[in-house]
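Record type: ASSEMBLY
Status: queued
Input:
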Amino acid sequence: METVLEVKDLCVTYQNKSRSVYAVKDVSFSINQGDSLGIVGESGSGKSTLAMAILRLLPPKTAKVTGEAYFQGKELLTLDDASLREIRWKHLAVVFQKAMNALSPVHRISTQIEDIYRQHEPKATRQEIRQRSQELFQMVGLPDRVYRLYPHEMSGGMLQRVAIAISLLHSPQLLIFDEATTALDVVTQGQILEEVVRLEKALNTTRIMITHDMSVVSASCTKTAVMYAGQMMEIGQTRDVLKRPMHPYTQGLLHSFPTLTGERKTLESIPGSLPDLSVEHAGCVFAPRCPFATDRCHAKRPAARQMEDGRTVACWRYGGESDG
Amino acid sequence: MTKYVIRRIFSGLLTALIVFTLNFIIIKAAPGDPIKTLMGKDTNDPVLRAALEEKWGLNEPEYVQYFNYLTNALRGDLGTSIIYNQSVASMIGSRWGPTVLLGLVAAILALLIGTFLGIFAAQHEGGIMDGLFSMVSYALDAMPPFWLGLMLMIVFASRLGWLPTNGMTDVRAGYTGFAYVLDVARHMVLPCLTLTLVSIPGYFRIAKSSVLQVSNEDFITTLRATGMSERKIFDKYIFRNAILPTITLFGITMAFLITGITLIEIVFSWPGMGRLTMTAINQRDYPALMGIYLVVAICVSVVMIIVDIVYALFDPRIRYD
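Status: finished
Output:
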């Protein structure tokens, strides 16, 4: 299968005069065409920063990005502006968390769609764009009249659908959802996720879903990546990661979510809180909160190891010895 | 939109009527008896009193007096000044032009310059020019307008002699036509400059902060992600959203200018409403004051209506219909 996106050793450091914050550190992963990757983690774990870095949307003055991100063979992080603009939205689109703010409040939906569409099809007529929008609106379950409305005339759920429809304007190969359904109620979220999965199959798009909600991942993603404090803890097939989590952090995260069908038991939280990201940690970044932590965990960072079922785990408990 | 405009005009009319009524009540409640003043301190002849009350309509019940005043005002008759024995309407008529001219020119100049500099500072945030503009803006904000006016007068009129010190025209020259326009323009430079300079900081700061705020909105990030050029994003999306607070500020400033221009007019002997107001207050010229307040209130309402309509044109969220 063709690899759509390959990220190697991506680091993002937010810098100001007095200190640096290592928001994302040495993250590597790849995603194949047709896959959907859910990136989960607590607030502040760097998952949104990771997405923004791949999209090249971080402010260059304050965020230093290193590493490589190959999208269809092109290295995104060093791409010149013109080529980048050529890729943006046509091949690589994004839907943000706050749909309420994702559209300009003083322009009609039609105006904004026309402007965005003409970015890559400068000669497109109004009728053409209108027709394309109608198709997409139908796909995401929006009525026709939305086209003529202003954002404040719609509900949050409708706006989220509009944002998703807009992201699909040029049928991009890769779609990034940054907490795109977090602000919605579970019913609407469920509907939208169902539509997204259906659309994906129809259009053969690849998706990265950034969320802190395990249920979103289990409902809509084929692969799951778990991030903690800016680092990848575990990546693998969703069924493997969620059914048999290997990394202690993943286990802890899953223990803090209730199941509908399982037996009744007390939910456990992970003791402690996120480490200070403005200092570099010598050992495993999760060690201070890990119930299995040993001296080695505190002293040296475990490398990511590939397991038999194809997943990757960064933990000393799983065959770190040979790493020396 | 039409519905909104109609409703807005109606509420403006209502404001004017309320001001008119309050005006009437305040003057009625003020101490002193106009008939006593007219008769003189030592006269107390009931026949004379009755005749005077008859003449001025003060023998009528209060509500009749109110409606008389209202119908007269609607016909453009605002009464007669006690001090100058002139019709108040004609006194105001010859004075409102210079005030509106000065106020409007200063407001528009401040709006354009302040907003332009604010946008520039926001686009170069943290740069040298941003720091410089911000510093100058704070300095100007801290200066009393009349003091700034006097300083400018000392430098440009007295020392350098480039510009006239006071008035609106050179009365001895008696210019006509284009020469007259030029003469007024020359006289207007200093008062207008003073008013513009003190109004710039407000526009500067509001433009800078709202451009910065809108630039950080999610929809701007989204537009960036669509590959739209920074220029287009700014020209179409940031500007249109960031200009809204400036429109509001313009309305507030206009209302302030119409009333608060007084000191500048006195400093520069500008023959406007401000000086008329000052004189009327000093001489307890009640009919003149009532007339002035009414005209000012109507001016402010009209400006507010216009600003509200312009705002609604820019911001669809305001047109709640």
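Annotation: Chain A has one domain: 3-91+170-259+267-323.
Annotation: The radius of gyration of chain A is 21 Å.
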